[in-house]
Amino acid sequence: MGSMFRGEEVVLVQFFLPTSAAYSCVSQLGELGLAEFRDLNASVSAFQRRFVGDVRRCEELEKTFTFLQEEVRRAGLVLPPPEGRLLAPPPRDLLRIQEETDRLARELRDVRGNQQSLRAQLHQLQLHSAVLGQGHHLPLAAAPMDGLLERSPLLQPPGGPHQDLRVNFVAGAVKPTKAAALERLLWRACRGFLIASFRETEQQLEDPVTGEPATWMTFLISYWGEQIGQKIRKITDCFHCHVFPFVEQEEGRLGTLQQLQQQSLELQEVLGETERFLSQVLGRVQQLLPPWQVQIRKMKAVYLVLNQCSVSATHKCLIAEGWCASSDLPTLQQVLQDSSSEAGVSAVVHRIPCRDMPPTLIRTNRFTAGFQGIVDAYGVGRYQEVNPAPYTIITFPFLFAVMFGDVGHGLLMFLFALAMVLAENRPAVKAAQNEIWQTFFSGRYLLLLMGLFSIYTGFIYNECFSRATTIFPSGWSVAAMATQSGWSDAFLAEHPLLTLDPAVSGVFLGPYPFGIDPVWSLAVNHLSFLNSFKMKMSIILGVTHMTFGVVLGVFNHVHFGQWHRLLLETLPELIFLLGLFGYLVFLVIYKWLCCSASSAATAPSLLIHFINMFLFSHSPTNRSLFPGQEVVQSALVVLALATVPVLLLGTPLFLRWQHRRSLRPTGRQPEEDKSGILDSSDASVAGWGSDEEKVGCPGDREEAEFVLSEVLMHQAIHTIEFCLGCISNTASYLRLWALSLAHAQLSEVLWAMVMRVGLRMGHELGVAAVVLVPIFAAFAGLTVAILLVMEGLSAFLHALRLHWVEFQNKFYLGSGYKLSPFTFAEED
């Protein structure tokens, strides 16, 4: 089989890399992504490995890159994606990149520090200018001084207590959110022995840290007394106020204001030059940083792989081991030879025997990746196990469509998926970061087939937005019924519901060419007819799906050489499944073919026949479908019950006999042991098959002890799970019937409660046109939200469950692990 139907052959290879060419060899392997390396130094600490110093240098560079990237983002710039394919740089270029990176980081830190310092100085000058230019007017001799003079004598004695008393000023700026608290605290702390004036700046000033415009409150405080001044200074320091010197004379203040404005202009020019130089440095960072990031990440990845290699005894080469596909071995050898040609010694790669289960490699493309993801979400297949993904491409959309069958809804889903498929190569579509969009986009081909199959089943159900369409002439004739039954006007007036009897000649002309006859959409018993049809259809599809899963297990047994499982497991499973539920499918089809419309009233009940089959009884009122039916049913039940002991005891007894046979001494035992060690493909057959045969797994050097009780326990679990699962799984497929009816009824209710109401509201052309616009908008929105999204998600989850539980557990273990080759694809 090909890679899609079964994983490719994966082998364990050993690399001998010359020390001088090891870096280039691993780098080329990373570009191709062909091999998954194994860690040969698992017992060695990460800090004691050979290339730990190089890894640390790369990590230090990545920290510097993060700083540079943050500076670029802080400046409102965007790093462009790297152009072209960038290879991992040679080790000698690491010093050059490190020096240039450190120089750029140092320049950025210096320039950014100078910019912050200049902005802070400019902000101080602007605040000082705002304080001096606000025009605070305060009386020099305030009320407390007047009261003091009234209480003092007219003539002060020489050297009195108030001869040195003078008014002082404190001017500054504070944030508006702190102004009220500052003013209140000053008044209480100084007991009113001050006069304070607060005013908001007319223009907003740029904050030196955040760069955002902000409003400030300027204040001017007049006081007298040294103790009051100390309190004021302490309080303004606590509120982080900007305090500036204040000149009492008007002329002095104007001169200071002019000097501040001149200094601000000079500082703005210097700041402009600094920002222009900063933009130049950031431009160089924008140009150099993206390729450096990719190259250093690749270099670090190469050194991490080299740390997993062991050193030869002569210290002249590195030894590595890894998994790769056998088909890629020639390419691998050629790449290593080309990479090590400059070193003078060619690198060598060769296969080595393996006692471990290899990883699973299944190559996918953009079409099959979504279906393979559905299978891998259940579990990655074991090595060389049958892959369910190719069959899921057909069965999953079909089972979904059985539950979602509607031409209109399927067409909307198909067009949505088709739009994503046509736009899949656009960069904007690929770069979208919305998680929901990424989920839909990754499954675009799955949605495309789901919509296409829904259109197909919609034609079978004859439903388009819950409305039936007349593509072909109906197979029922009302005229023939009216002619032969003699319906009069009085009869029609008394009977609002009329019955079409298919036994009457000419009423039923034959089956509809494709799908359900549109006349059923007018019938009162429409739901009863669809119930019977969809329930039987679900049973047929379910038994067919499960039987196909059991048959796929045959390919696993043949591939792994487990021939005894064909007779002791697969054959009894098929007899049990087909003898009971396959017979039920036969009864459904046989009744469809043999019972005509004329004998429909006396047709036997399949449910009663199936119950009597297990009770070994007969109902006189329920006639047989064919002669000898009771004998056939009894024989099938006995045969199905007889397969249960075979399923339970067959494989354990065979393995016990095989184990005892292997313990017999023979003269060829050394040769057999040697061949078992050298031939890894033969040795892996028994160990990778199933849990019951892990006793003979070559992963253990010493032969494990055969424990019959454990094997019997595993086989008993498998037998009970299969026998009971045949019953529960068959009933589980009835969800196809239930969800199909639910989808049809929701569509009918939405049409009846929205569109039908809108179509009946206006009879005039203008009124109908105005009314139908919002009605149709509501109908479209509810259709997308309820029927497409909610019902679609429900049908998707149920189809997923049918594949994981009812289908894949018949043959698929899903206990393997993926091949994860060393590749630079994500770095690029």
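The above is record 1. Record 2 follows with the same two-line structure.
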Amino acid sequence: MAALDQKSPNVLLQSLCCRITGKSEVLKQRREADAALFSELHRKLQTQGVLKHRWSILYLLLSLCEDPRKPCSRVAGYGSMFAQALPRDAHSTPFYCARPQSLSLGHPERSSTLGTSGISSLGTHTLNGPTLTPQALLSGAPAQVLGDSLRQPGTRLAWTLAPGTSPSATAPTSRGPPAPPALAARTQLRPRRDGDENGEIAESALVRDILYVFQGIDGKFIKMCTPENCYKIDTKVPLSKSLRDLSSRLSELGWLHNKVRKYTDARSLDRAFGLVGQSFCAALHQELKEYYRLLSVLHSQLQLEDDQGVNVGGECSLTLRRLLVWTYDPKVRLKTLATLVDYCQGRKGGELASAVHAYGKTGDPSMRALVQHVLALVSHPILNFLYRWIYDGELEDTYHEFFVASDPTVKTDRLWHDKYTLRKSMIPSFITMDQSRKVLLIGKSINFLHQVCHDRTPPGKITPGSKDIDSPRDAAELFTDLEGAFQGKIDAAYFETSKYLLDILNKKYSLLEHLQAMRRYLLLGQGDFIRHLMDLLKPELARPATTLYQHNLTGILETAVRATNAQFDSPEILKRLDVRLLEVSPGDTGWDVFSLDYHVDGPIATVFTRECMSCYLRVFNFLWRAKRMEYILTDIWKGQMCSGKLLKGMPELSGVLHQCHVLASEMVHFIHQMQYYITFEVLECSWDELWNKVQQAQDLDQVIAAHEIFLSTIISRCLLDTNSRSLLNQLRAIFDQIIEFQNAQDALYRSAFEDRKQQREGEGEWGVSAAEEAEEKKRVQKFQETIPKMCSQLRILTHFYQGIVQQFLVLLMSSSDESLQFLSFRLDFNEHYKARDPRLRVSLGATRGRRSSNI
């Protein structure tokens, strides 16, 4: 029997079947044909996957074929040996699983849908062996005795000690002849008596010690060794190696119990551990409760043996080997719990739930059921946080366990951007990043509606109602369909809340209208308004910046609005349009400090933040300066057209005027190409992308992201980012040359024309007197002497301008943006600069190939 006990359940089943109904019994009766038939039938029975308890089937058939008038055979002995199963109350299944089918139909727990967590026994699903059979059935005990034994959970370990039976009656018969008395005496342990130091310790004493160790209490012989952190038997105690090894293996269960118990005792009173941590401790307590239930049954059986005087080593007594078999499944479960305790050290909240969830990915059904049961308890507070957040917008996370964090110091105007964030470390592993982002947006949208938009609509009318997680069972059912029911709840709340928020912003606060106003006024999209405003502001902005007054400029702005199509805009938009003067530097004129401004507040300030308005201001200043260059070149062209006929009578000026016309044409071509690039390739294309994204946006975050991408694009493609600083410096130098050319041409025309004649005629005097005519001749002669100087100044100006443009084209060619490279081809359409600089002769295809090879 010792050899059989050391085998696995499958090997034990096969050996038992062969020893009970094997071929040897049939061959002794000289029935070879029946033996062959039995072998074939037994082989077919083993290959059947439908039958789970083949041993029980064989035993039933054997019992039916035996003559009841014959005395009990050795089959009863073997049956009683393997009938030492734990009572039904000690058996349990994983949480929310059904009870074993071996329960009677009338048992009250058979109809229950909830079970225990299953740490107290092997369970019928763990071992691959047969269902253990009580000896009361084998020995033919009356039904009343069997019923009484099933009703007494504390005595079901003593099935073989039922009334009317005796230990000797249930002893197995040997397959061979009885052993000699001397040999039998040698095989029994010699009990240890007082004063007898050489006598070995009785196994019953070790069993009693082991039961104490199971509870974390030192026994008489087995004690905790603190330096080695394990239970050990003193080496001086006389004990055989086999019993010492069995005791060490069983003591591991006590060590695992201590590890789990120490963790729960330390954390249960720690309020900072949070609700999730307390739920984890509650799950561990529940498993320990089932474990204590097993120990109480074992203690009850041991006490029953003491009361009835069962011999040590008898068939019905507790032995170390039986304890090893019965505690196999509890040991596996405690090992799992101890591993969880180690892995969860220092974790809390969603991080703790992720650690538990990671251990559920296993192929062992019993271990997976245990982890799922613990996870259902642990995740219950998290799901309560989640549903209260997405349906009510409330966040009561005292111990910072939820993956949504709130900063109470943030003001209302920054609620959407800064108040609520994700704690990525607290996101449970069973919740994806996309789901957590939607959860954050749902609750943030509800709070934004209430606190910023001042919308008093109850949350229940915004999002469809849903049942909260009332119990861990609801959480367990939810985990079985994370991509179905759970995802559906989050998506429904996300779409309803986001749609309602966008409707409020668009209809009540006119978000899209304000966005179009930014395009028309700050990005110079309202052409007639910008042109008329520039005409009205020209006298004022030509003055030094220190002499400007904002109220004067504001009056001019209102005049420009009333005189153009801007007057048809909404009053809500026009009242936000204002004038802003930048910081004044020495030597600045009004053109350098003037800027338009657009006031934003309330919910729309969430989209048009201070950073965004700063970007709009930078872009406006760049576009306003470029528009001014176009305005200046228009004035230059008008001056040339008006003065050309008047100066036709002065042939000495023809060269100078021709040079002015050529330089002005180059500048007009450059500015027109730059305006085309900025207006169509940058602003219009980026605006079209922004408008499409805003129309398709599903939540406010997508609107804000699209708007920020729009501003970032125009900032970079208008050469206003840090990577294009050299290009912007060259472009500003070109603008400065245009202004200098305007001043030079105005000086030329002032020298060529004298308005003194008109002044004298206005006073009623003769236009020219003799003295004045002589003076005029001297002035004309002096002017003719300055013509060569003017020509040299224009040549220097032209050379300097073309050098700056040439450097600008080289920088455009070396840019990684292909649109800027195409701009260089349009600026140098006749390859004038390409002939002067070899660096401009590289084709676009070669540039792209070189950049690809570098990558």
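The beta strands are 222-225, 230-233, 404-406, 420-422, 577-581, 594-598.
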